[in-house]
Structures are given as structure tokens and as C-alpha cells.
């Protein structure tokens, strides 16, 4: 083989001997030696490269494999992503619950401090249980009638010593009247 024809192009064909000659200055490398070899303004019609029967299919094997891999990846990641989102929601719920419990603790500690004060305890005993200190005067309103007495004494019940059935008949007579 000669030096010019022994080398091969990337297409597999041997290089032509003319391609290895130097190009004279002022000429284009693609220009031929015939100046009017091509007509100006007119192109030869190109044959249709692809017809309807030689079109590439819309769905190829690579496309199917790619879609399958993407679906497999989505299904694989769906469970952990859902668990992560559920965990985030659970953390938010627990943080809100913790805040509520902290507020409740502060409220109960304030109530405990109030209850340890002896003045507050005495005030609550007077209001809720009607306790009085010795020397205080207790006024209790019963059915619109005022009953007064000293602390620790019972009202006089001798005037109302009727038996219960007479009291019942008297209240029925009042309601009827």
C-alpha cells in the first residue's frame, strides 16, 4: 500500500490522493476546477428522505425502558416520602400539644401559688362554704326572706313547729289560692 492510500477515513474508505495535496491560495477547498459546474439559483430537487412508511416509531424500546425506570423510581420513593411527610405532620401536632401543655402547667402552677396563700384560702372558705370567723355576722337569704343570726347559732324554730303534713297542705293551699 502506498502512503496516500494506506490511511483510512472515519467512514472506512481510503483517502483519495487529491485530498492530500496542498490547496493553492485563493481557492476554496470545496471548489472544483470547473467554474460553472453548478448552475446558480437552481437546486436539484432532493428525494424525500423519509416517507410515511419509513418514519421512526413514536414509542421506542429506549422510551419504554425509560418510562419503566421512572415509574419504578417513583413507586420506590413514594413510601419513604409519604412517611417523611407524615412524620413532619406528627412533629407539628406534638409541638402544638407541647405548647398547650406548657400553658396548662403555667396555669396550674399559678393556681397552686394562690392556694398556698392563707388569705386566699380564708376568702374562698367564706364565699363557697359560708364560713364566718368568730364575731362576724352571717346573713343568709332563704326564699326571699332574710334570716339573721350570730355566727354559730341556729335560728329559733319554735314558732314553726307544725308537722310536715300540715306544712305540705298549707303550701298546696297557698299555690291553689
Automatic annotation (TrEMBL):
Transport found in the keyword field: no
Keywords from the named record: Cell cycle, Cell division, Membrane, Transmembrane, Transmembrane helix
Transmembrane region(s): 64-85
Ranges for region Disordered: 1-55
Domain of life assignment: Bacteria
Basic residues compositional bias, start-end: 1-11
Record field: compositional bias (Low complexity): 46-55
Gene Ontology BP annotations: cell division
Protein's UniProt name: Cell division protein FtsB
Highest classification ranks of the organism: Bacteria, Bacillati, Actinomycetota, Actinomycetes, Geodermatophilales
Amino acid at each position: 500500500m502506498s502512503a496516500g492510500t494506506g490511511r483510512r477515513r472515519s467512514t472506512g474508505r481510503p483517502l483519495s490522493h487529491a485530498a492530500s495535496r496542498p490547496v493553492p491560495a485563493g481557492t476554496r477547498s470545496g471548489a472544483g476546477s470547473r467554474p460553472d459546474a453548478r448552475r446558480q439559483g437552481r437546486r436539484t430537487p432532493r428525494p424525500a428522505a423519509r416517507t410515511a412508511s419509513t418514519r421512526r416509531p413514536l414509542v421506542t424500546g429506549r422510551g419504554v425502558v425509560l418510562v419503566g425506570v421512572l415509574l419504578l423510581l417513583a413507586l420506590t420513593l413514594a413510601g419513604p416520602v409519604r412517611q417523611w411527610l407524615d412524620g413532619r405532620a406528627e412533629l407539628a401536632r406534638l409541638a402544638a400539644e407541647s405548647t398547650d401543655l406548657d400553658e396548662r402547667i403555667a396555669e396550674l402552677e399559678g393556681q397552686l401559688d394562690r392556694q398556698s396563700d392563707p388569705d386566699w384560702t380564708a376568702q374562698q372558705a367564706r364565699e363557697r362554704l359560708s364560713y364566718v370567723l368568730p364575731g362576724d355576722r352571717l346573713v343568709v337569704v332563704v326564699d326571699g326572706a332574710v334570716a339573721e343570726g350570730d355566727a354559730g347559732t341556729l335560728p329559733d324554730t319554735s314558732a314553726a313547729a307544725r308537722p310536715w303534713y300540715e306544712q305540705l297542705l298549707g303550701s298546696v293551699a297557698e299555690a291553689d289560692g
